[in-house]
Every structure is written in structure tokens, then in C-alpha cells.
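WARN retry 2 of 3 for item q-0093 after timeout on previous attempt; input resubmitted unchanged.
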Amino acid sequence: NQHVIEGQKLMVTCSISSGENPVNFVWLKDGQPLVPPQLVNRQIEIKQDQEFSALKFKTVRLNHAGNYTCLARNRFGSQAYSAVLVVYGGPRWVKEPPTEPIVATRGQTIVIDCETTGWPKPEQTWHIKTSKQGEFEPLATNGGGRISLAPNGSLVIRNADKLDEANYLCKSSNGIGKELSSSTPLKVTVPAYFEAAAKQQTSIVRKGSHVQLRCDAYGDQPITIEWYKNKHPLAHVSETGGPLAIDARYSIYSNNNPSKNGLISQLYIQQAQRQDNSIYECVTKNPYGRDRLPIELIVQEEPDNIQEIQVGPVNSRSVTLMWNEPYDGRSSITGYMFQYKRIQEATSSSMLMNELEFVDVMQSSVADSQQQQQQQQQ
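OK item q-0093 returned
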């Protein structure tokens, strides 16, 4: 076998020690004949006379590596000899890491290219620098976590986070020639969002109490928050943090979140009323995205009185009363209490008050009961 380093010059000879002329020499690489077009493209020349043939490599390349066979033939027979050419070459770029910053969104999978070729196969190592004044430090890529190496040596970052923002340096070497290196800045943008734990909130208050609804939004600045009631905008949140009057009882305050990169917005409602029952919604936005947070406000109060009572079928032991179910005050009605006056058949005009004993109460409207009576009469 012949071992050479890429870039060197090389001549491989094939000669005969005996045999009758004329002798014809044929060269093969990996079992395929070397024909003139291939020789030109591969910068190989063939020199020969009646007793020898030689392959002249002007500059050895990695693709010259292979199994070469010299076949000598005359009219009496043929003889072949083979040898393996091993070419060592330093790393060369196949996919170089970009020098321009990569801009990705939080949660994305990021691939930073770093693919090289050479022999022996080059090994890629990655380094990270988190600040402009800092030094590059080795980056762990074999822990089975979010950051790993692709088969070709490129860097894969899954579920990218703001903490992944840094300068990434790829080095490739195989002990031959000069080491390759290139760095790529990574910027991770964070769309405006509400934390998942805060989704689908419900606030239950009593009528007349003061209400505070709060939304905590996070993401890259600038962040804004808008409030909606039944999908209609209430007001835009002021970046200065001052209150915005919506009506006499509504006000909104906002300020930067001191613990995280975000914004806090609070909607205050004084003396909650029945008309405040609604689905309120926070919508947060920044240049990279938006998110929404619905909050249901339930204002509980005493149920309304029954407006109309109708008397249905009467027998010796029972009477049927019918009424439309009143507004329940956003809380299930647990029972009804009725009183009646007994008119005595005497000359006396006195009247007695008694409580009714309910045998059964069914949910039914007055209109439904009237329709049932008409059907029975027919």
C-alpha cells in the first residue's frame, strides 16, 4: 500500500521483467478502467513505453484514494498487479457555519451547520461564548439533552430558549494539516406569551365587591397588553403604567414585571354588578408573536323574585303551581319558599297566613304548563 498526504506529487510505476513485445498496459481504479477523460479531470497522466507504464499524479487529492490495478497483456497472456493508494488529507469545509447571526424563535429546533471532509475523518468539537468579553468554553454535546451533534457534526439545539443566546464556535481537525474553525452568533426571540398555568382562569365574587383581574405577560420587549370584554376592546394599556379610565367603575394599571422580562396588567372593577358577568380576555403582543388569556368573571347575588305564579290542576289534597324560573344570581337555586292566605267562609273577614308544603318541584316554564293543559283539554 502507498500512503501519501493530499497535495503531494506521486508517480506509480508498473514494469515487466520478461515477456515478448508488444505489451499493452491497462490501468484500473477500483475495478474500472481509467479512460482519458477521467485522467484529465483527475489530473493524472500516463507515461509508458514497451516495458513499463507509470501513473503521474500532478497533485494528489482525496478522491485519488483507491485500489489501483496494472494489467499487462501480450499475445501469450496477461499479468495483473494491484496496490491500494491511501491519501491523508486535512479537514475541508462541506457546510461551513454561517458567519451571519441565526435568528430563531423560542421553542424551535436550531441546526448550526458544521460539516467537513478529510482523511482520517475529521472530528468536530463545539465551544460557546455567552458574552462579548468572555472566552470560548467547551460545549457539552453528548449528554443526551437538548443540545447534541448531528451525524455530520452539525450542532442541534432543540426547544431553543433565551438562555441559548450565545456565540457558537465549531472546530474540525484530524491531525493532518490546519485545524478549521468558524463561529456563528445565535439570537433567540421570545414571542409574547402567558404561562400555561395561568390559562382558563375563573374569578367568583359577590355583587358589590371590588374586583381585580391580573395578567402577567412575558417575552421580548416591547410588550403590550389589551383587555377585551366579550371580544370587544376595553382600552389599550399605557406603557407609562398610569390608569386608563374605561367607565366610572373600570380602570387599568400596568407596569413592568420586576422578576421576569415581562409586563403586568391589572383590571379593577369597583362594586361589581350583574352586567359585569363576562369573559374578559388579555391579549399580549410583541414584534415576534401574540397570546391570549381568557378570564371568566362570575358575579354572584341573590336570585330574583318570581314574577308570576299560575295555578294549575287542583284536587282535595294538592294544587299545582307554575312559574318561570327567575335569574339564579349565577349560583344554583337550592329551594323556593311560598306563603298563601286562607280565606275563611264565615262572615269574619280575618285571614290566616300559612306556609305551603311542597311535594315536588320540577323545572318548567309557565308557557310549557299552559301548553300541557290545552293538550289535556283537547
